Each structure stands twice: as C-alpha cells, then as structure tokens.
Amino acid sequence: MDKELVKDIVNCSRCGLCMDVCPVYKAKRTETSVSRGKFLQLLGIINKKLKFDRRVKYNLDLCLGCKKCKAACPSDIDAVKIFAQIKSEFNSPFDNFLNSAIIFKIKMLALRIFYKLKYPFGRKAVKIKNKKETSLKIAHFEGCATRSVCGKFDAPFKFVNEKFECCALPFYVKGRLDIYEKYKKRNLNKISKYDKVVFDCATCYDTVLNYEGVDKSKIVYFTDFYKQKKLKAVSPLIVSFHKPCHIDNEKFFEIEDILSNIEGITYKRTEKYDECCGFGGDFFTRHINTASILSKEKIENVLKTNADVVLTTCPTCLWSLKYGIKLTNSKIHAFDLAYFLHNFVEIID
Ligand code: SF4
Ligand code: SF4
Prior knowledge:
This protein is an alpha/beta fold. The chain is built from 17 helices and eight strands. Among the domains are: 3-90, Fumarate Reductase Iron-sulfur Protein, Chain B, domain 2, CATH 1.10.1060; 228-347, Rossmann fold, CATH 3.40.50.11810. The strands form two sheets. Strands 4, 5, 6, 7 and 8 form a five-stranded mixed beta sheet that branches. α15 (288-303) crosses α16 (315-328). The termini are far apart.
C-alpha cells in the first residue's frame, strides 16, 4: 500500500467529528458507515488482521462522496480520495469490469429510461431569443444525466454544444482512476479550444474545476450570466433551493441572491439547506433505504418553507427531491435551476 495513503489513514485521531456531519452515519448510525470506522477497517488491512473482503467493500461503498467529513476533520483527511485509492488497489478484475466505461454507459441509459417513465417531462423548454452576442468562444459541458433529468439547457448567450466526456467522478469514486485520468485528459484537450466552458451541473463543475492542470479561469457556472441582471418571474411564486454537496457556500449565496432579486419570487431558505439529499451519483441504486431516509428528510425540511417550487442544480439531487416529494405525497414542484431560470423567468434588463 502507498506510504502516503497509510500515513493519511494512521493520521485519523478517532476524534469522531466526522460523525456529526456524515449523512450516511446519520441514516445508519453504525460505526462502519462513517470515515472513522472505515479507517479502522483499513488499519486492520494494513496490519494484516483483516482481509479486503465483501464486508469491507460494502462499508467503503457506503459513502456519498459529499466531502463533508473532510471539511470537519481537524487532520484534513480526504476520505473520498483514500477510498478511491484503496478501491483502485484492491478491487478484483470483476469489480473493475462492473465499474468499466461500457457498464457505466448501459447503467446510465437504463437509469435515463427509468427516470423518463417515472417522471415524464411534461413541459416543452422555451427557446431563448435575442441571445447576447459575444466574441468569446463558449462551450457548454453537458453532464451524463442533465438533459434527461433536468431538461434541455439554454442560456441568454451563444454557446457551442461540445461533446465532452463524462466528468469522470463516477469512475473516480469507484476506484477506476485509469478511466478518470483518460477522460480528464480528453476533457482538458477540449477545454483548451475554448475561451470559456459553461456548466449547469454542480457536480461536473466541481470535478472539472478540481482537475489537476485545468485553467480555472475558463471554468464558469452558468449562474454568473444571471448576476446583476434584472429578472422577473412569469408568475408569482415562493421558491426554495437545495444546495448540492458539490457547490461551495460562495456559489450558493450567489444563487440565493439571484433568486431573492427576481421580481415576483419570494425566496425562502430551507432549514439544513446544505444537508446531503442522499442520492449521491448512483449511490441510491445500491443503498435505497439510506437514500430514502435522507431524501424524505430533505423534502420535509423544504416543506416547512411553504414553497411552491424547490430548485437545485444537479440531476441526482433533482431526482432525490422528486423522490422525496413522492415519499411524502406532497404537492411541491422540483425543478433544475437552469431550466427554471430559462422557462419561468424573463430577463428585463
Ligand atoms: S474527523 Fe478526521 S480525525 Fe476525526 S475521526 Fe473523523 S476522520 Fe478521524
Ligand atoms: S464523504 Fe460524506 S458520506 Fe462519505 S464518509 Fe465523508 S461525510 Fe460520509
């Protein structure tokens, strides 16, 4: 095992601060579901007292990749990185096959079809006219699930729909660091052809922004184009917002500012707005009980705002919100932020 990796695992002081923030631990209440307990198991492997067996694999898989434990950890231990490296080292060839690009594509296709059947998208997206002319070469980065789950992206400026690879986070968290590196390289090559690349999925945005060697000045979140604009809702609404784990506080407050300043919109902040929605990529397909607890709790908190609409900016979070709405049998609507801004809001100035 890599020495740096062992050092990080040994660095865990067992203080337990990660237990206060880990969504999986909140839902399961088992020591093996939180970073501290996972590191103890990995210590057992380092000391050759434990084998990397089915149970250890299952426990490592019990992670939403939310990075909340890293933010709370006094030793700044990056659990998501450690789990990815361990999986990359110990996964069997069969595990690698299950986490291969082809299986991922089949899974995504199945999920997209399932989503369409479960939540038919009844609304036709409005085409934005009079787009702002710009001399910049702008590309849109479309995530694997964005179009099917959130609706077609549009924005008040001209852009190219470049065919990027998946941001590769799903491969990274499963220990396929080889695929992550390959996709990262391809995406960096494509990014280099543009002045700006615009994102509308918080998770893709955060992943690409953290690529080693990326020119961060080119990576833009689409909401930047709505800042300082005079906006008006097509009808009065009370709106709330779920903050995806992969968007930082600065971006979140910017989004709140945009929503609060739309004429006709009353923005209400959800209690525990930054708690994970529980779906985490395809985590919910393997751990639906844990995901359901978190998804339901999320919607229960949203409902306290009396909002008509809850927004978010990640397809998996949006799916979780819709699932939570079904679980609670509530009437609130859930939309993707980009879809909402271009279909329910007009730019006045
Ligand atoms: S917060 Fe960090 S040091 Fe403390 S128990 Fe969790 S992983 Fe270990
Ligand atoms: S990344 Fe999130 S879900 Fe995973 S162990 Fe850390 S706090 Fe828990």
